[in-house]
Amino acid sequence: METLLKDVRFGIRTLAKSPGFTSIVVLTLALGIGANAAIFSVVSAVLLRPLPYPHSEQLVNVWGKMDSEGLPKNWTSDPEWWELKDTQQSFSNVAAYSLGDGLNLTAEGKDPVRIAAAQSTASLFDVLETNALVGRVFSPEEDQPGKNQVALLSYALWKSQFGGDPQITQKSIRLDDKLYSIVGVLPQTFAFAGKQEIWTPLGLDRAKPGSRGSHYLRVLGRTKPGLSFHQVGFDLDRFAKQLAREYPNYYQRNGLDIGWGVYAVPLQQELTGNVRQALLVLLAAVFFVLLIACANVANLLLVRASSREKEVSIRAAMGAGAWRLGRQLLTENLLLAAVGGTLGLLLATWGVEAIKVLSPDNLPNAGAIGVDSQVLLFTALLSLGTGLAFGLVPTFRVVRSNLALTLREGGRGTAGSASHRVRNALVVSEIALALMLLVGAGLMIRSFQRLLEVNPGFQPDHVLVTELSLPKNRYPNDTKSNSFYRELMDKVQAMPGVQSVGAVSELPLNGEYSSGSVFLEDTAVQSAQRTTFDGPGSAILPYLETDARAATSGYLESMKIPLVRGRFFTAGETAESQYVAIVDTDFANRFWPNSDPIGKRLAFDTVPDSNPKQIRWRTIVGVVGHVKQYALDVKGREQAYFPLAQSSGYLQMTLAVRTTVAPESVTGAIREAVGTLDKDLPVFGVATMDRLLANSMAQTKLNLILLVLFALLALVLAAVGIYGVMSYAVSQRTQEIGIRLAIGAQTKDVLRMVVGEGMLLTVLGVGIGLIGALVMARLISSLFFGIAPHDPVTFGAITVLLAAVAFFACYLPARRATRVDPLVALRYE
Questions:
Q1: What is the pLDDT, as a whole number, of residue 528?
Q2: Is residue 425 part of a domain?
């Protein structure tokens, strides 16, 4: 220990004598280690941290799918849930839950509040093995039709709305104008299915299940201990095939498979699937940056080691062995790594805060991102590994050098061809890694540019959106709810600064799938439809699943969704008038590519009797442009709109208000208008369409920003590495250059020699980097949009950029070499 302390003190004194060298090394390492620590903190919180439930690896979500319907992930209907519950063999327990649109919480003396709400079977908390913090969870008896007026509060809602009242289980609350008894409060760590603030029982009626085609339930299961995921998949596949045999008109078409299936996804993967690959790519990117930083530092240490060979030779002559010398040099390297790691941790703390600000709202477990004990341990191990990585090669070179020759030559340094080869190899590796990062960043930039060029199908500027949800108790029928929205539209339209206003059941870019069954009357196009509907009795009618939206007059105009043919809805469309519909261009082109769809008839969702003649047909009166419903990079399905006044059951709608003033400025007036119609109705989800459009690209934008920053850092470090090696090569060859100039060499000859050597290293690095970049781009191709992973424009531009930077880094030392005085150079040692 005493010897180690001596080595540390000596190392500190030695490094303090070279403040410039020490500062450059420490800063280089801090940037590399800090970037890695910052990204690891995100990876640790989002991907590595186990879910806060016992044996969380056993938890899986169960999904259905209908590939031919464009539904790779679909929810479960009531009948399917009961059949799965009765026949499954892979789960120790299963639960169903539904993430609703929310509930209106009203209390005396308080403004109405919209809260995120969910419903579940009582078995959910058994599956999660979670108990209430206060009170209890649901009982099976409470999960019955008519008996499910009980509620579980989240910890956050308990604190914010009820002040953490310990007697909360003795109270009731009013949700959507219904009275619920509070039975418990969930733990603070309970964050299942997002930021749900209240849970109520589903109360499914086994005796009267809903329609087999009404998919709205999510299923969570806990697999039996020791059961492999393959066995779970086999069991669910068996279940799907059994249903297909029993109900062929739902799950088959003319006896053929339509892509129906049931499969499981681990809950951890479900929560992180959208960001997993992007985070791993960023982690690999910052590791590349660290490797480049290590190569740079190793080159600096090799240069420094050459200048210290006389010192090391004298110590060896005085009796110091190779192990003693190597330990001293490694101690200095580890000191540099420790200081760099400490500074890097500080940079990581700032970086984490910046990432949290830039992160999208739906980043899983974002609240847990921070510099915790795992990040500290990671940083410590990374600093230790880095110190060993960049320090071993220079240490080995010094210890194995010819120390006796160094003493005889007066300390000029004996760096030979092997040392030059090592430095050159490090530079080549830096260039290759930098090229890979730059290509990845370039492809991301091009991809993001293509994403920005995508037409969302509407004009988002000057549009304010806000959501409303009418409680069923106060609005028991469509007449009352439609009347409310009609009066509200009239009030908002009359406000100063409002150009137009409308409402829709599903706003674009909300990320939610909400489909409806569309029946086509035109027999000429029935062959293009996807499946069949098994109605009560023998009626079998062709239909397809499409994105069906209820809308008021004025909605399409407010969003400036272009009218291609026909007309928009008018205020004259009522429940008593002719039933109409509007379809998008995708819908029209698919079924009537060579004819006019105006005047064609279709029906939505309902087959009232076995007699098809009783279907309420709607006449197509317009064709509008296709809207990006889910995301800009998702194609989406065909879309159809129908008037709200000719619909049933739509209590929650989203207002779209186009203004001639700043959209946010009319928010207060809209709240007042709602209050005059219903003082207990909260207004929520207020945002501009510009903001929602930006939010839909937030994750992609964050990935782009971080990757570009890392790539630019890699480019700078690579340029510094080339410059350093060429500068050292010039200093080592000063005498040779002087002789060449003395015997008549021209300036351009010296420039060509020095720059040529540097560019040769660049060409080697670029060649290796291009191969690595091609492989890397294919591996992360799912992150790109509208761009090929081998895009020649990106590869060409990045190659030219890196070559230009490398040329400049070579030119500066070469220019300095041309100014060598031959007389001075001949005396140079």
A1: 45
A2: yes
